[in-house]
Amino acid sequence: MRKFKNHILSLLVLLLLINSTAYAHGTKISCDEKKVYSIKATFDDGTELKNAQVIIFSPKDPKNPWGKGVTDDTGNYEFVPDTSIEGKWTIQIRQAGHGGVINIDTTTKGNNSISNGNNMSTSTKIIVVISVVWGFIGTALFFLRRKK
């Protein structure tokens, strides 16, 4: 009988060791893909917009803020869009009356694009420059005309 108890006790110890070893080596790893956009906000002279207000508008509702935040001490802000909402996200950054807007297009066409609101093509820029120069010439000719 004593031998039988020793075998049972040895078997229980062995089962406990095997069971705890299985838990010790078991792992669970999961991964969520999140695209993070790092935004840097600076003044024209390169000074960072520290603690500037950040307002995010989703493609579904461009009038009401989807999220709000603040840039860090170096003018950086990280934006993680909701992957279930595709389209053009608008991020507005403001500090003391200064700031700007950036648009991030998150469509799944593989062409994620970022624009800062300056979307004039080269031909449009040329037309604007010609118009401004023509306006200056016209104004100069108006004041230089001979009076009769």
Automatic annotation (TrEMBL):
<protein>
    <recommendedName>
        <fullName>Carboxypeptidase regulatory-like domain-containing protein</fullName>
    </recommendedName>
</protein>
<keyword id="KW-0472">Membrane</keyword>
<keyword id="KW-0732">Signal</keyword>
<feature type="transmembrane region" description="Helical">
    <location>
        <begin position="126"/>
        <end position="144"/>
    </location>
</feature>
<feature type="signal peptide">
    <location>
        <begin position="1"/>
        <end position="24"/>
    </location>
</feature>
<keyword id="KW-1133">Transmembrane helix</keyword>
<keyword id="KW-0812">Transmembrane</keyword>
